[in-house]
Design goal:
single chain; about 280 residues; alpha+beta; Ribosomal Protein S5, domain 2; Alpha-Beta Plaits; 2 domains; 7-stranded mixed sheet; about 30% strand; globular; binds 4-diphosphocytidyl-2-C-methyl-D-erythritol 2-phosphate; binds adenosine-5'-diphosphate; kinase; isoprene biosynthesis; transferase
């Protein structure tokens, strides 16, 4: 007996680590993090439809190279529900890019499957699909700690206007963590400030870090070029890498400034993936 709709679809927003402090390493090798995470108004799209057998169709401008079999996280997420579905995944985010494509797609699939099946609880194994899946299920600004399993919503993050840029090099997350020299770095302040608007948030962010920037740049020197290029954009207030890279973001005080800067980059660097975005 079915107890949900025949079809369900969810947006899978890009996850952006505004800060990423690596504060230690567990015995099993996983790293302890302290990260302020936000979500963008750009992302992938996932849809699931009841079917006789599992299938996956991957399309969209960033589909090239994304697995179309059971190794895709959307397939693994849907399979946890024990109900065959036809999945369609429209890729707009670059893969292996530090903006959680796989984790956000997995979270969107879990939400779509829960709607389709009428399940109130997510199946065992859901958050183990990836370290970022828990925060991606929340889909709102959050402070993420532990190895990604501790997620607290942060309610007072003012909207941020940004340009996201990726030089189209894939950076494997494990290699970047492995190359990080100092594993024990300072966390963010215990209590986060109550930012009075976008400018105050950007000023505070400027004093925070992404500890994975240095090892990612050592592996892919073009990331330093991306950050320098973003920093030099008119009205850019801050440029930083997200996650383990190679996607970087520049922050602006207005959406108009972000859109104008993105248009300049698209013209001068046609080989890069570039988009204006608003984070919340
Ligand atoms: C670095 C972060 C920051 O948000 O983002 P991305 O660069 O992936 O977007 C995440 O912690 C990544 O999350 P995710 O990409 O889901 O990680 P997983 O697939 O679970 O782990 C990939 C590998 O990264 C390393 N890893 C991941 C998370 C963590 N806290 N410590 C680690 O050392 C481990 O080597 C692990 O095998
Ligand atoms: N739905 C998916 N989208 C992108 N990559 C996926 C997906 N499912 C599995 N992968 C695999 O996961 C790897 C990491 O991709 P992704 O999750 O986008 O990166 P990151 O860990 O940097 O956020 C890719 O190289 C790809 O082979």
């Amino acid at each position: 007996m079915r107890n949900g709709p025949l079809f369900s679809k969810f947006f899978a927003p890009a996850k952006v680590n505004l800060t990423l402090h690596v504060t230690g390493q567990r015995k099993d090798g996983y790293h302890l993090l302290d990260s302020l995470v936000v979500f963008a108004d750009v992302g992938d799209r996932v849809a699931v439809r009841e079917a006789e057998a599992m299938s996956l169709d991957v399309s969209g401008p960033m589909a090239a190279g994304v697995p179309t079999d059971a190794s895709n996280l959307v397939w693994q997420a849907a399979a946890l529900f024990d109900r065959p579905v036809a999945i369609t995944l429209s890729k707009h985010l670059p893969a292996a890019a530090g903006i959680g494509g796989g984790s956000s797609d997995a979270a969107a699939t879990l939400l779509a499957m829960a709607e389709l099946t009428g399940e109130k609880r997510l199946p065992d194994g859901s958050v183990e699909l990836g370290a970022d899946v828990r925060v991606c299920l929340m889909r709102q600004a959050a402070r993420m700690s532990g190895i990604g399993e501790v997620v607290e919503p942060v309610g007072n993050v003012p909207p941020l206007h940004a340009v996201l840029a990726n030089p189209r090099v894939e950076v494997p997350t494990p290699a970047v963590f492995k190359a990080l020299e100092t594993k024990e770095n300072k966390p963010m302040s215990k209590a986060l400030p109550r930012w009075q608007g976008t400018k105050a948030l950007i000023d505070w962010l400027a004093a925070q870090r992404n500890d994975l920037e240095a090892p990612a740049m050592a592996a892919e020197p073009v990331i330093a070029e991306v950050i320098a290029t973003l920093r030099a954009l008119p009205q850019a207030r801050l440029a930083r890498m997200s996650g383990s890279g190679a996607t970087c973001f520049a922050l602006f005080e207005t959406r108009d400034a972000a859109e104008a800067a993105a248009a300049t980059l698209v013209d001068t660097l046609p080989g890069w993936w570039v988009t204006p975005a608003t984070f919340s």
